[in-house]
Amino acid sequence: MKMTDILISRLKQRKNPIVQTLLTIIASYQSKNSKQQEELVRLKTKNSKQQEELVRLKTKNSKQQEELVRLKTKQQAKQEIIKDKNTPSDLLSQICNKQYEKQKLDNVWIDSSFQKIDKLKCDYVGKIGELWCDNFCKNNHIDCKYIEDKNTKDGTYDIKIQNKKIEIKTARQEKQKTFQHENLHQRGYDYLCFLDISPVHFYFTILPRFNMKSKREIFGKTLHRRKNTSNVFKFDFSNLTIKNAIKAGKCLKIDSTTSSETVKIYSTINYLKLFKNQRSSKIK
Predict the structure, then answer these.
(1) Tell me: the pLDDT tens digits for 51-92?
(2) Which secondary structure element, helix H or strand E, spans residue 254, and what is its range?
(3) CA 220 to CA 126: how far, in whole Å?
(4) What is the third-level CATH fold of 115-269?
(5) Rounded-to-integer distance, Cα 155 and Cα 131, Å
(6) Pairing state of beta strands 164-172 and 191-197?
(7) pTM listed for this prediction
(8) What is the residue extent of each domain of the chain?
(9) Is 276 helix (H, G, I), strand (E, B) or coil?
């Protein structure tokens, strides 16, 4: 036991008021000193944590400085590469980008409601006409059977409408404003339907099966026979071809204002006789 503690113990045994007052002061001082010691320990602990945090921040800052140096080095390397824009690869890249921008300016399909057809491959373009005919018939309660890609024993065609075999050819407008129809056959169907799609409207042409080797007076042209074949033809529609077909009543121009009834009347007039309510009204 410390001497101070022994002295205080002896003083407590005395009844002297002055001694008791002195003991009270000593106890108050000890209590205050104890709290100060606790606060000192707390501050030391806090300071220790702050020191640890400072070390952590310094370490983090050091890593950031290293990353900054790395990025600067990388940027400098890029700048060195950019300085020389006449490498063969860069030259080709620049030309490709310029031609792409030029193509966008010349693209007539931009903002067209049919614009996605310009991105489709030929097989998918061909499906558009087939699906349009199939859905048009179903929407208007017309008896039809879509053959799709199935092989049939009774001919080569895409859809049957009121038991008539229909071969459908679809084309999108080319840069020269023409429509190209490939792989036309002489037999295997009753009617040929052409769906020619431009950015603002499309043309629906119906023809009964005809001799493809002879000149078509309606269109003012003869079909092209494919090389090394005897019965496979190519039929291109120009603006003049379309104009002649419309004049002869074999082609209908369809846009956002054309009604389903107009298409039904046109189809009836062109010998299909597929629809129950036939009319003799004129097409506008």
Answers:
(1) 888 888 888 888 888 888 888 888 877 776 666 567 788 888
(2) strand 251-254
(3) 25
(4) Trna Endonuclease; Chain: A, domain 1 (3.40.1350)
(5) 19
(6) parallel
(7) 0.62
(8) 3-78, 115-269
(9) coil
